[in-house]
Amino acid sequence: MLWKAGKERPKEDPAVRAEQGLVVSGIEVGYHRGPAILRDLSLTVGAGEIFAVVGRNGAGKTTLLRALSGLLPCRRGSVRLQGRDFTGLSAERVARSGIAHVPAGRRVIPGMTALDNLKLGGYQHSRTALASALDDVLAMLPALATWGARRAGTLSGGEQQLLAIGRALMSRPVALLLDEPLTGLSPAYQQDVLEEMSKIAKGGTAILLVEQNVRKSLRTADRGMVLDEGRGVLTGAAAELLAADRLRDGYLGVGDARQA
Amino acid sequence: MSSITRSAAYRGWRRRAQGLQPVRGPLGFAVTAAVFMVALSGAPDTTLMTISLACVYAIAALGLTVVFGLAGMLSLAQAAIMAVGGYTVALIALDTIGLLPALLLAVVAGAAVSGLSGVVGARTKSHYFALATLALAEGVRLVLVNESSVTGGSNGHPVALVSLLGLQLADPRYFILLAVPLVAGCAYLVHCLRKSRFGLSLKAAAADEYMAKAAGVAIDRSRTLATIVSGGLAGLAGALLAILNGYVGPQDFGLGAAVLLLLIVVFGGASSSMGTVVAAVVLTYASRGMLDLAEASGLVYGLATLLLLLLLPGGVAGVGKAVAGRLGGRIRRARTRQEEA
Amino acid sequence: MAIFGQTIISAVAAGAIYALIAVGFSLIYQTTKLVNFAHGSIAILAPYVSYSLLKLGLAMPVAVLGGVLAAAAFAFVMDRVVLAPLRTRHISVPILATVAVAIVIEAVTSLVWGSQPLYLESLASDEPWRISGLSITPNQVVIVGITGAVVLPLLWIIATTKVGRAMRGCAQDPEVVTLFGVSPARMYLLSFVLGGVLAGLAGVLIAPVTGLKPTGGLELSTIGFSAAVLGGLGSLPGALVGGFLIALLINMTQVYLSAGYGLGVAYLVMALVLLVRVRGLFGDDIEAVRQV
Ligand SMILES: Nc1ncnc2c1ncn2[C@@H]1O[C@H](COP(=O)(O)OP(=O)(O)O)[C@@H](O)[C@H]1O
Ligand SMILES: [Mg+2]
């Protein structure tokens, strides 16, 4: 009972889990006045579930996360979290209402210490709530405590990724959005990050993982979606996706197969 | 479809135009300058004085386009560098060493002092450079005011009368005969710098310092060189101003003048020398008009600056581009409509 | 020796005022990455307003408070009206706008209050106490006391509270902090208002000492910048220390070397720091010169 303290653990019934998670229906998203990047995209991430969206460079994965966290407006469709409508909220409001976004490239604040970065993640909390959130995050990611006093800019890529995830957890999110957390990490560190993710999901958080590393992310995820040119072309259980012909032809090249 | 045909036509035009490249540039600047001088021959004295001042500011602003326009380094010292050039011709024996050596000396002095700021600018980010140039400008002013036995202090210093081919240069009528060709020459020089590898490296460094470094651009050297070139032109402009006025004083080279020069660059746009010259004429004319307002001039001037920054994001050149873009868009839309019909 | 001691005493009083300027300037820089060339001009706005309020017959403390509030209000309006719309442009555009604001303030003050120096009454008596050959005025004590009472709590708040962290985070990555529920626009505004309060305080404290003239704004700015750069741009404790050091250098130069070049030393220090050690005494090396 680490994450939503005081709330009961999600039921195993998928419908209930979905109701307590993130429901995206039919969104259309684009930049400024440009063409739509995402069209009629729908997905559901239940509480305690890891949902992986995989796709090539430029498929619209980052755009999807930016839209969900309020950095980009949705032109159509709706975003709901635990039944509450999030569509059209500003990024600050979304952040205070239960969605945490770990952006691509980690984006830790380089000039601040790791600990201050974590505390910044809990901006919305009162002093006491901040202290307890910090305790919980450090308990979950003990590595953070060991280099807490160092400035984030001096940490290695893997350490920065863990810090970015920890910082997002500081807000005690209902849904956690992760943008390519494995990029640029050594295989050992990739494994670490994936394991931490599973742990977090077990605590009841809905995790939306966006990745290019199809094999690794689908192995950890419960369900997933293949995103191509802004449309969800294939959705299903992660294991089924991994076995699907289309995915094998299009996304799991020889190189990737050998690596795995 | 339409964009493809357009770009093909454009490329053809470019190819033909490039054949003329070595002649076209200097010829263009020379013809413009000549037309300008003929048009001015009958103008009244006050207009000639304004044009003379505009030439001075245009030269200094052309220098500033290299540092501020291309390299994105905000310099508040350009007016102070002009002072260096002005005091150089004021303090040397102009009548014995002659006009050309005096101007050259002013260029060298301006380049050297400006290069000092370049040493800071090469290593640091833009806002540190702005502070360093403020320190340089105030330092120059302090020396000018304090060393009154040499510089005349806040009262300023007279400048010997000089003539060129028997024509008195303190008279705006004859001054422009020297200044307009110099403006054309400087405009062409900056035009060439902009197109050169040096100009490209400055632009690359301004856009993304780290990428530029990674691509092997010697940022430090380019930036220092930019301040030196810019300082040379400011020195020349200051010398010309001193000769025109027959006098130099610290009040002509204050923060107000520095901001006027920055504004000229902002509204001339970084991408065209002609834009800088036009902006110099317009803004000099406007700021001369404000002199009559005495104390209120600062107010009008500051507010005008703010309004221009807020309301005209792309400067004068930006307005041109926006209009062209909108027209182009309309034409393209009309064409596609025709094709569909 | 007595001259030396006396120089130190007046340097401490002047240093407190410069520190107020420098801390405000650095606070704005630390949050917005903007060099506010109008900072000293905002500072002299406060004593001008106080002067008029005194003329209207208000009591001294009310007039001083009114002046400080006016400076803060001006900073508020400046951020909303001038700087907020320029935030998406290249950083040199808003910086140029702050220079224009400085020119506007100078023009307005000389139009409204004239270009002749004005003199304000000190907050406390200038009748010196004599302590073992040195004289200290109650006003000097009040200046240092007010600075301490305002700056030290502020530094503590910025260093330890969530708002302080958010302000620091804003400058480095304004987009990412919105993901934690921070509104950068509000942080920018807050830093400007706090900076305005500090500048206004510095203004009302320095006006009785040096007199009040429209050109004093830029002078105060450059001293404040030098102090902030010496301490390390963006480091608030650095700005505090830098203020005292610059005052010491200026006063020493004026007493022992040349009266005219006191300010020159401030410029020289700024230039030297930028040349030799950009991050100053306590600045952030990651901030000053980033490596590839
Ligand atoms: N700031 C932006 N403005 C306009 N278009 C953008 C912007 N960012 C991304 N795009 C476009 O959106 C599409 C999807 O990009 P993105 O979501 O970043 O892809 P992914 O994260 O899957 O690699 C791309 O075609 C890209 O060109
Ligand atoms: Mg992406």
Describe this structure in words.
Chain A has twelve helices and ten strands. With 260 residues, chain A is of the alpha/beta class. Chain A has a domain of 174 residues: Rossmann fold (3-Layer(aba) Sandwich), CATH 3.40.50. In chain A, strands 6-7-8-3-9-10 form a six-stranded mixed beta sheet, with helices on both faces. Chain A is globular, with a radius of gyration of 18 Å. Chain A starts with 13 loop residues before the first helix and ends with a helix. Chain B is mainly alpha-helical and 341 residues long. Chain B has one domain. In chain B, the strands form two sheets. Chain B has a two-stranded antiparallel ribbon with strand order 1-4. In chain B, strands 2-3 form a two-stranded antiparallel ribbon. In chain B, helix 3 packs antiparallel against helix 12 and helix 3 crosses helix 13. In chain B, 49% of the residues are buried. The N terminus of chain B is likely disordered. In chain C, helix 1 runs antiparallel to helix 10 and helix 2 packs across helix 9. Helix content of chain C is 74%, strand content 2%. Chain C has a domain of 202 residues. Chain C has 292 residues and is mainly α. Chains in contact: A-C, B-C. Chains B and C meet through helix 6, helix 7, helix 11, helix 13 and helix 15 of B and helix 4, helix 9 and helix 11 of C.
In short:
Chain A: One of its GO terms (biological process) is L-amino acid transport. The complex is a heterotrimer of chains A (260), B (341) and C (292). With 260 residues, chain A is of the alpha/beta class.
Helices and strands in order:
The complex is a heterotrimer of chains A (260), B (341) and C (292).
Chain A: H1 14-19, E1 22-30, E2 36-45, E3 50-54, H2 61-68, E4 74-81, E5 84-85, H3 91-96, E6 99-102, H4 114-121, H5 127-140, H6 142-146, H7 157-169, E7 175-179, H8 187-202, E8 206-211, H9 214-220, E9 223-228, E10 231-237, H10 238-243, H11 245-250, H12 254-259
Helix pairs in contact in A: 4-7
Chain B: H1 2-19, H2 21-40, H3 45-70, H4 78-91, H5 94-97, H6 99-123, H7 126-146, H8 148-151, E1 157-158, E2 163-164, E3 167-168, H9 172-195, H10 197-207, H11 209-214, H12 219-245, E4 247-248, H13 255-268, H14 273-291, H15 296-311, H16 315-340
Antiparallel strand pairs in B: 1-4, 2-3
Helix pairs in contact in B: 2-9, 3-9, 3-12, 3-13, 3-14, 4-6, 4-7, 4-12, 6-7, 6-12, 10-12, 13-14, 13-15
Chain C: H1 2-32, H2 39-55, H3 60-83, H4 92-113, E1 129-131, E2 134-136, H5 138-160, H6 162-172, H7 174-178, H8 184-210, H9 216-231, H10 236-257, H11 262-276, H12 285-288
Antiparallel strand pairs in C: 1-2
Helix pairs in contact in C: 1-5, 1-6, 1-8, 1-9, 1-10, 2-3, 2-4, 2-8, 2-9, 3-8, 5-6, 5-8, 6-8, 9-10, 9-11, 10-11
